[in-house]
Amino acid sequence: MIRTAASRRHVLHLHHGYSTAGSCIVRAFRTSTVRLDQRAIVYSKNGDPSSVLSAVSFPDLPPPAPRTANVRFLLSPINPADINVIEGVYPSRPSPSTDLSSDASAVFVAGNEGVAEVLSVGNGITHLKEKDWVVMTKPQMGTWVSSRNVRIEDVLKVDSSGLSAAHAATLTVNSPTAYNMLHDVVQLKEGDWVVQNGANSAVGQAVIQIAASKGVRTINFIRDRQVRDNVESLKSHLKALGATHVATYDELSDRAFKATFASWTQGKDVQLGLNCVGGKTTTLMAGLLGENAHLVSYGAMSKDPLSLPTSLFIFKNLTCHGFWQTRWYDQKTLDERLQMMQTLTGLIRGGKACMILPMGVP
Amino acid sequence: MIRTAASRRHVLHLHHGYSTAGSCIVRAFRTSTVRLDQRAIVYSKNGDPSSVLSAVSFPDLPPPAPRTANVRFLLSPINPADINVIEGVYPSRPSPSTDLSSDASAVFVAGNEGVAEVLSVGNGITHLKEKDWVVMTKPQMGTWVSSRNVRIEDVLKVDSSGLSAAHAATLTVNSPTAYNMLHDVVQLKEGDWVVQNGANSAVGQAVIQIAASKGVRTINFIRDRQVRDNVESLKSHLKALGATHVATYDELSDRAFKATFASWTQGKDVQLGLNCVGGKTTTLMAGLLGENAHLVSYGAMSKDPLSLPTSLFIFKNLTCHGFWQTRWYDQKTLDERLQMMQTLTGLIRGGKACMILPMGVP
């Protein structure tokens, strides 16, 4: 009963409707409010997304079974990791679905994050009703889809008051990564410093805002831009979000930077570094950290390894960790996840974080 | 009153008397039992030891002041880090002494480790008597010296029964490094696995023995030798110490090694890796570690940085630490240091660790 309407163009041009600020922009598609065929972006084998993705259509969902709900996706971001999942190079994998293929072979529905509104609920559900917003609590649920049936334990209700759909759609990956890295490793106090690279990534911008909301000061590294104005514009943007200082990797690489850094921190040891880049500039950034500091890596956008002089570990007692929000979800209870969500939505409503400012930078 | 008898030859040829097994051998000099002039190996500026070290003579010590003791060194090892201290590239530095120079300018007495016997004690000392053995509890005390006056709080008494002077002289650096790395980071149980490189270093051999005494199994990596027999002889030596498996870095680099490793561990996750080498082979060794493992670095003999794919941190939750015995001493009470010493001497007396076996390898 399922029509396959595979088309590379469908995927690439369909429903581009939204992007947040930042160089690591959230590209999302919006399902039309005019009822069309239900559609899903699927793949049956891993590879280059432009080769392996296809759009399939499927009929309207049947009424939901007990303790499940039918939901309609409002916005589903494309995060960089989603591409890696489709390529098959990411440790998280979706479960295969046999409902959406024309020949009963398994396909994977792409997409990890998104906000959906409830269309209808099955018996046994009292805390969700039509029009409520929900986000996924389980990774790799498949969110690049018009609508789907979900189990009650796989979604969390989000109070939509004061939130845009864009806020809600981007609540489960980048903002909690920023929040948890700032809280789980080091007990930061007002006036403490944090250094980070990839500072204009979605996580980086959330780090700036969440840190600023606690009075924690940030030193933020970004790539250089060929056009000088663009660098200044990006610096202004990050400062408007709450960044204390912003410097480019070129500035970081300059011998004079240590003195600049010392004048900023006034000799106060920096206890936390956040890394999503790797490679040489991360080595330099790690050298800025103080005694007993922690370097937390959550990405490797340069694709270069993390390379650090052993002396930092031995003599400065550096500790290096990784952070993966997927593991955090695995280790936490539903209540803990709900509490995190409420903390983040509270920050958004208070204008403290996940604010989306105009960038002015291409 | 102090005669300077500077001579490069003095330092290089004087009193070579002892070496323990291992490639990272402990080279030590023995002060003669026939009373000669008191001598010290000193330097007034940092640099290549063969250029900056000199031997100075000084008169017999005056009677000890209250709460101090005069001690005569029996054996003082030369550890690799001692060279770095003299070069001025090590974070620990000795305090300058003005007693030993001919013109009252400051000199540094070299040497960090050693065993001394008590010659005489000042008033207020009841727990030490003549002929007792002591080791230093403070780094960089200056141990390459015939005799010196020490404050009571800067030495720990060692019960010499069942110990050789070589055992006692090497109690404060390498063995505690091995012991603490095996106990402070991961709670190892009988049957657990540890991987390490530089396995024939003094620390590495202590790791093998201390691990074996707890029923912890070790996979030990060593450099290749040009003469095949030497590799086999070294492997046999380490196995005689208690090593479960020994492999060369060449073997580690071979694609087939993963299968060998899996056959050894039977799929059991390795939770602890110990590194004193850095560079490419450490990257390979880190790849053998299981989920949530810890890699502890205590040296960088290759002088190459520790370079690790970020994915190990993010997806396998690897944590990287450093270990520095000097910091351990800084953070511990005298009682805790004494307890450590007693644990180690207990292992030695029980024939469990710090055993010195004939090497048969050049």
Give the key terms.
homodimer, 362 residues, alpha/beta, Quinone Oxidoreductase, Chain A, domain 1, Rossmann fold, 2 domains, seven-stranded antiparallel beta sheet, six-stranded parallel beta sheet, 13 helices, 17 strands, disordered N terminus, disordered C terminus, lipid metabolism (chains A, B)
Structure description:
Two copies of one chain form a homodimer. The longest helix of chain A is centred in the C-terminal third of the chain and has 16 residues. Chain A is built from 13 helices and 17 strands. Chain A starts with 7 loop residues before the first helix and ends in a 13-residue tail after the last helix. With 362 residues, the first copy, chain A, is of the alpha/beta class. In chain A, strands 1, 2, 5, 7, 8, 9 and 10 form a seven-stranded antiparallel beta sheet that branches. A six-stranded parallel beta sheet of chain A has the order 13-12-11-14-15-17, with helices on both faces. In chain A, strands 4-3-6 form a three-stranded antiparallel beta sheet. Chain A folds into two domains: 165 residues, Medium-chain alcohol dehydrogenases, catalytic domain (Quinone Oxidoreductase, Chain A, domain 1); 152 residues, NAD(P)-binding Rossmann-like Domain (Rossmann fold).
